[in-house]
Each structure stands twice: as C-alpha cells, then as structure tokens.
Write a structure and sequence with these properties.
419 residues, alpha/beta, FAD/NAD(P)-binding domain, D-Amino Acid Oxidase, Chain A, domain 2, eight-stranded mixed β-sheet, seven-stranded mixed β-sheet, 18 strands, globular, binds flavin-adenine dinucleotide
Length: 419
C-alpha cells in the first residue's frame, strides 16, 4: 500500500525510541529500498542520558560495532570454591552505552526530511481502516505499520493476571574510578557469586573499562526489589571485601529491573508489530535482550524490503528454548536449586561457548543434551515435565475458550438469520 504523506500519515510509525525502536530505524536506514520511507518516531523521553549499558557476546563484527565502547576476550567466573577463566573465543563480550546509540540514531536521521521525531506520551496504538495508528498529544497518526516497544497498561495487566513465573532481575551498578591502576581491562568478571545468597540468587559483575575505571554491578534474580540504600551498602561491601578497594569516586550510576518470565507477550495485532521487551524478546531465564533485538529488527527490515508482512515467527525447533527457559524459571522460583549452584555446575562442566550459544537460543541439540546433563536430572526433569504439562493445559484452555467463542458467535449469527 502506497501512503500519501500528509501531516499525520507516514509509511511507518515507531513508538518507543529505545533499543528496539532505534535498532529498527538504523536497519531501515541501511536499506536503499527503504531509505526514502517517511517515518514518525515517538517517545516521551528525549533520550539525552546514558540510562543503560548493554552487554552481549558476538563472534563477528556486529551491525553496531562502531558503537562498541569496550570489549573483553576473557571472562572470569567466581564462586566460594573456584575461579574459572572462561575461554569464549571466537566470541567477544561487548559493551554499548545507550547514549551512544541514541546520539548515533539521531545523527543518522537528522538530514532526512521524511523522518520526524516527536516527544510525547503515546496513549494508544491500534488499527483502523487497514492502517495502523498511534495516538499522542490527542492527535492520531497513521502508518502502514506501527512498530511498538511500549508496554501499555492493558498488556501490563494481562501480565500481572497471568499465572506465569514473575522473577525480577534487578541490579544497581556504579562506574567507579580509582587513583591507582587496579583493573585489568582485558578481563571481565561475568559472574561473581562470592556474595550473600540469603535473598536469592545474587552475583556481581565487574567490567573494567581502563586500569582505573570499571562498571561494578550488583545483581539479583529473585521476587522482590530492595531499597536503593541496600544496593549501595552491598556495592560498598563488595568493593571493600572482594576487590580490596576503599578509595574511589563514583562517576555514573545504573539501576535496572528486567522481567524474567515465561509470559507470552502479544507479538502483533493487525498492523501493530510489537518489539523488544514489549514483544517478549527478553530471554526469560537470563534477561538478555540486546542480541534478540538486533536479530529480530534485522528480520523485520528484511521482510519490509521484500514487501512481506513483518512478523517474527519462532521456528519450530527454536520453541524448545521456551521450555528450557520455563524449566529454569521453575527451578529458581520454587527454590529447587540455587542459581549459584546451577551456574557453577554449568560453567565448570561445559564449554563457555556452548553455554553462550544456549543462552542465545542457538545451540545444537547435541550441545543442549550436554548442558542438560551438567545439572541434576531429577530436579530439572521433573520441572520440565511440570512445565510441559502447564503448557499443554494452557493450550487446551485457549482452545476451549476459542471453541466457546466460536459457538456463541455462530449462535448469535444463527439467531439473527432466524429472526
Ligand atoms: C538498566 C538496564 C540494563 C540492561 N542491560 C542489558 C544488557 O546488558 N544486555 C541485554 O541483553 N539486555 C539488557 N537489558 C535489557 C534490554 O536489553 C533493555 O531493556 C532494552 O533497552 C530493551 O529495549 P526496548 O526497546 O524493548 O525498551 P526500551 O529501550 O526501554 O525502550 C522503550 C522506550 O519507550 C518509551 N516509552 C515508554 N512508555 C512510553 C509512552 N507511554 N509514550 C512514549 N514513549 C514511551 C521509553 O521512554 C523508551 O525509550 C537492560 C535493561 C535495563 C533496564
């Protein structure tokens, strides 16, 4: 469908200009066929602050390689009983600061007259007369598609009402600077479990950016958030007791909460295509999202280039990762085994690269079997069977609901014909 550009009509509308929205924009700008499309981007924030630091692993030169702030080729894993140096080659563990993505996307679109940015609250997205729409500032904007990464109240409610697992990955981090050179900026601590586990799975990661600078982040996988002062105390204790650092200045602070869940977020409704966290692209068992956003926004762009409907479908064999995620969530949620023990068994028995591929939903069946054989079968098998049963039960419920709706719809139609 060719749209005629008027003030409130665009080819595409992107609601939410965070990681997913801007990754999609950059992919679209890369494509000669799509470069001239008119695009409206709406966000209630001006995106002028570094509000997130994204870390991920990648083998090749990535699409956003020019934005990589730092990378590490060696990762360290600590528990009370062992320290492992993880060989991750050919992967590199990379870091991108969100402000660099925001600024880069703005600068790439600055000279494009057909790209408009609007700072406003998006109050609704939907479909009308074959077009998608987004409402902001009491104006309705139309486009062939709305690519949405905002979690609206309705979806939030559906999430809260769902009987899915709702664990939280919550963390606070400081970029600290020391006077003396204390860090090896070629090695990053991926997980340090030498911290108190009484409030659930807790670990720290240390990402050195220079010999005197590092991002140190205290992370929990559990059910409840904690007061900000508690993270501060824990960070201070960790720096003092584990790293022996007493004198430092805090240059930046990062705080975040990522849902760890097996809730099925709505992927699409008509021509409104959800993306990012709003589409459930966050891996339920780890919170990693960045690389799924990169992969899926690339696939959406490919569909647009080939004039296909831009929907992300999970391939049949990939669906097994949903079961693995639910199983791990089941084990953690029900305290069947501690996160510390699970990760220790995995990293001490398996190649780090296999685990990274597993976390990327990219491992082979052989790797999956090896990984599963590293954890106690009795715990994980019973959790997996539990999850399979729940999934079937949910499917049957949905089917039953669909049949009931269909029957009542037929009844209404029949009654109207008879009358
Ligand atoms: C602090 C933090 C650190 C993270 N680190 C990592 C990491 O290292 N690796 C990893 O893989 N994942 C990480 N994640 C998870 C995930 O990658 C990020 O949350 C990522 O930003 C998700 O992208 P998104 O586009 O879905 O959401 P966002 O980037 O949050 O974008 C959503 C946008 O919608 C806007 N918005 C919301 N409501 C409205 C509204 N009503 N009207 C208008 N605009 C609205 C927001 O301002 C925001 O810009 C992190 C998450 C957090 C919170």
């Amino acid at each position: 469908m060719q749209l005629i550009q008027t003030d409130n009509h665009f080819d595409y509308i992107i609601t939410g200009t965070g990681c997913a929205g801007l990754s999609l924009l950059l992919h679209i700008l890369q494509e000669p066929n799509l470069r001239d499309k008119s695009i409206l981007l709406i966000d209630n924030s001006l995106k002028e602050k570094n509000d997130k630091t994204w870390c991920f692993w990648e083998k090749e030169i990535g699409f956003l390689e020019n934005l990589v702030h730092h990378f590490w080729e060696e990762l360290i894993f600590h528990t009370d009983t062992e320290t492992l140096t993880l060989d991750i080659a050919p992967f590199k563990y990379k870091m991108i600061r969100s402000i660099d993505l925001y600024n880069y996307a703005k600068s790439r679109s600055l000279k494009k007259s057909k790209i408009k940015w609007l700072q406003a609250d998006v109050t609704a997205v939907g479909n009308e007369n074959g077009l998608a729409f987004a409402k902001a500032n009491n104006i309705t904007y139309y486009g062939q598609y709305v690519f949405n990464s905002i979690v609206f109240e309705q979806e939030q409610k559906a999430f809260e009402l769902d009987t899915c697992y709702k664990l939280l990955q919550h963390f606070k981090g400081w970029v600290i600077e020391t006077k003396e050179p204390l860090f090896d900026n070629k090695k990053a601590t991926f997980m340090d479990f030498r911290v108190d586990q009484k409030d659930g799975c807790a670990f720290v990661y240390v990402l050195p950016l220079s010999p005197t600078k590092a991002l140190v982040e205290y992370t929990f996988f559990n059910k409840e958030l904690i007061p900000q002062e508690k993270y501060d105390d824990l960070l201070k204790q960790y720096l003092k007791n584990q790293l022996g650092i007493n004198e430092y200045s805090i240059l930046e602070t990062e705080y975040g909460v990522i849902p760890m869940t097996n809730h099925r977020f709505k992927k699409q409704e008509g021509n409104v295509i959800n993306m990012g966290t709003a589409a459930g692209w966050t891996k339920g068992s780890s919170g990693f999202t960045f690389q799924f956003i990169q992969k899926n926004t690339y696939l959406i762009t490919e569909s647009l280039v080939h004039n296909k409907f831009p929907q992300i479908k999970t391939r049949f064999f990939e669906k097994r990762f949903n079961l693995f995620d639910s199983t791990l969530l089941n084990v953690l949620y029900n305290n069947r085994m501690t996160g510390k023990d699970i990760f220790q068994q995995l990293f001490s028995k398996q190649k780090a690269t296999s685990i990274l591929r597993f976390l990327d939903n990219n491992s082979s069946i052989k790797e999956d079997i090896k990984i599963m054989s590293s954890v106690p079968l009795s715990i994980f098998l019973s959790a997996a069977l539990n999850e399979l049963f729940n999934a079937v039960k949910k499917k049957v419920n949905i089917l039953f609901f669909d049949i009931c709706s269909l029957v009542s719809e037929y009844k209404i139609q029949l009654q109207s014909i008879i009358h």
